[in-house]
Amino acid sequence: MTTLLFLPAGDAGLRWLRFGDTGLMARGEGVPPGGDPVVAVAPAEAVTLHWAELPARSQAQATAAARILAAEASAAPPAELHVAVGSEGDAAGERPIAVVGASAMRGWLDMLAAANVDPVALVPAPMLLPRPDEGYVRATLAGSGVIRGRNSGFADEEGLTELVTQGHPVTPLVREPLEEALIAAAAAPALDLRQGPFARRRRRFAIDWRLIRRLAVLGGLILLTSFAISLVRLAKYEFAASALEERADALAATGLPRGETVNDPDRQLGERQRRLIGPGLGFTTTTAAAFAAVRSVPGTEVTAIDFTDLGNLRLTVAAEREALATDLKRALERAGFDVKASVFQSAGGRVTGELTVSRR
C-alpha cells in the first residue's frame, strides 16, 4: 500500500489518500496512521514547472543546466531556489523542471519530520496527472483543482486557466482513470523534489541485535551438530576397534593350545612360537644346517638327534673313519656354528660320537 499525503495549501491542512491493490482504500485528514510508504504532494501553486531540453549524460549536468534556465526565468536569487529535474521526457528530449523556494522545501520537510513522517518522494501536484497527448487534463486533488498539459502544469485558477489553455480542450479525469494515474505516479514519480540538499538520507547503520541473537543461536546449533557428529564417529571407531579386538582374540585362541585361557594374545602367541622354534637360531634352522653339512660329507650319517632348552643341537653321528667325523665338524663350523666333539669310539668298523652344535 502507498499513501499520498497532500501538504497544506491555503486554509486546508494535511490530507491523505491510501491506495492498495483494489484502488482507493481510505482517506483522511492530518497525519496518516500506519507505517506504509508516504509520497508527499506539494501544492501546485507553490511549484513552478518548466519543460526544456536538457543533457541526458548525467543528472549533475542536467541539474546544472536547469539551474541556469531557472535563474533566467525567475526574479528570486538563485541561492533561494531549489531546482529539481524529472525523468519524464518526450521525443524532443524535453524534461520537466521544478522550481520551488528552498525555504518552502525546508518548511515542508521539517513539518513532516516533526510528525515522524519521512516521505519517500515529494511530488508537485500537477505531476500526479497523466501527460495528455494533446490539450489538457484537469482533476481535483485534496479539494484543489490541478491542470496538466504536455509541457505545463499549474493550479486551476479562474482567469489563469483560460489564459494558459487558450481555448484548447480541457478533459476532466473521472474517478477510475484518476485513481490509476495516482497509483502509477506514486509508484514511479516522474519528478521528485527530494534531490540535492533535500534528498532523502539513508539510514545510518544500526546493529540488529535480534538478528545477531538469531545468528548466535544458529551458530551454537551448528557447533552442537558438529560435536554430535564427532561423538558418533568416535563411538563408531570404538565399536569397530572392539570388534577387531574380539576377532583377534578369537583368532589367537585357534593358535594356542586347546583350553588355554586367552589373556594377552600377542604375548601368548609369541611364547608358543619361541617354544616351538626354540632358543638360539631355533630347531628348524639349526637342524637344516646340520643335515646340509652331513650331506656334504659322504660316509657320515646321523643316528640320533636332540635339541636342548639352551638352543643346542646334539648330533650322534657315525662315520667310516675318524677323519670323516673331523670333516663334518669343520663343515658345521663353516656354516657358522660352534661345534664341540666328544671322543669318538670305533666299533664294528665304524666310529661313533657326538657333536654339539650351538649358535656362534
From TrEMBL:
Signal peptide annotation: none
Cellular compartments annotated: Cell inner membrane
Principal location class: membrane
TM stretches of this protein: 211-232
Gene Ontology biological process terms, A to Z: protein secretion by the type II secretion system
SUPFAM superfamilies listed in its UniProt record: Actin-like ATPase domain (SSF53067)
Coiled-coil segments: none
InterPro entries: ATPase_NBD, GspL_cyto_dom, GspL_pp_dom, T2SS_protein-GspL
Keywords: Cell inner membrane, Cell membrane, Membrane, Protein transport, Transmembrane, Transmembrane helix, Transport
Keyword Protein transport belongs to the record: yes
Record protein name field: General secretion pathway protein GspL
Domain (GspL cytoplasmic actin-ATPase-like): residue spans on this chain: 36-141
Gene Ontology, cellular component aspect: Gram-negative-bacterium-type cell wall; plasma membrane; type II protein secretion system complex
Superkingdom per UniProt: Bacteria
Family (UniProt): Belongs to the GSP L family.
Every GspL periplasmic domain range: 209-359
Record's keyword annotation contains Thylakoid: no
Its membrane topology: Single-pass membrane protein
